[in-house]
Amino acid sequence: MQVSNITVSHDGKINHVDNVSTIIPRGKITTIIGPNGCGKSTLLGTLSRENKPQQGQVYLEEQDIVQYKPKEFAKKLAIVYQQNQTPKDITIEKLVSFGRLPYQSMFTNTQDADNEAINWALESTNLLEKRYTDLEALSGGERQRVWIAMALAQKAEILCLDEPTTYLDMYYQLELLALIQKLNQTYGLTIVMVLHDINQAIRYSDHLIMMKQGKIVAEGAPSLLTAKNIKEVYDVNVAFKHDELGAYIVPLGV
Ligand SMILES: Nc1ncnc2c1ncn2[C@@H]1O[C@H](COP(=O)(O)OP(=O)(O)OP(=O)(O)O)[C@@H](O)[C@H]1O
């Protein structure tokens, strides 16, 4: 995806995303990082057409995303939110099947392809055995996997995730990030996500976009992060460590 001079304002006064241009590399994991309120979700929501930019364009396969019909766009890009309203009395399988809506029409029978995609989505997220379980009976971590399964059933090449690990304990955070990595490495999905944990961003991303006050201040491989630019962006002092675990930061204080 190519983002070209995007400006988004939620209130018509402040530019919450301010003249941003970037490229989301295909087949890679891109993570948007930055302090609270810097515009991460607004940028992600612009890629997924949830936010309409006042200025600029986003191109997907050389076509402006506004030109795609809703169903065609849903076949290209799926998004999973941080928190989702859980419908009552619905099984995992039923929820995942909603991911097939972009493919259904009155004139074509897509049942075989639908079943195949649903099975693949359930298998990839390790939910096959629980397919007939009610969503309400699941823990928060399992539920997040179901929403990802629904997005996978959409069979889109680009998967956007807005703070997918928020509200999850350490176990489910790591499980979810490993799943995202598997989806990228095994199926070549392009991942674009927002994360707050810098160490997770370093460990699981190929590409980082670092934002501050609606602008991109640095982008590239995780090695672009330094104690200096983290201080500038987050106003936090960190120590950078490099050892057999790879690179990671240790927050020292504000
Ligand atoms: N629907 C909205 N109406 C008005 N202002 C909004 C709306 N959504 C976001 N904003 C404002 O836009 C700015 C950027 O918000 P955004 O959610 O994109 O930031 P973020 O970097 O994702 O923040 P966080 O890390 O806290 O989730 C914030 O100041 C926020 O208050």
Explain how this protein is built.
The protein is α/β, with parallel strands linked by helices and 254 residues long. It folds into two domains: 1-76 and 157-174 and 181-229, Rossmann fold, CATH 3.40.50.300; 83-155, no CATH class. The chain is 31% helix and 27% strand. It has eight helices and twelve strands. It has a six-stranded mixed sheet, sandwiched between helices. A four-stranded antiparallel sheet has the order 2-1-4-5, covered by helices on one side. The protein has a two-stranded antiparallel sheet with strand order 11-12. A hairpin with a 2-residue loop joins strand 9 and strand 10 (215-220). Helix 4 runs antiparallel to helix 5. The protein is globular and about 55 Å long. The model has no long low-confidence stretch (mean pLDDT 94). The structure holds adenosine-5'-triphosphate. Adenosine-5'-triphosphate is lined by residues 10-11, 16, 34, 36-42.
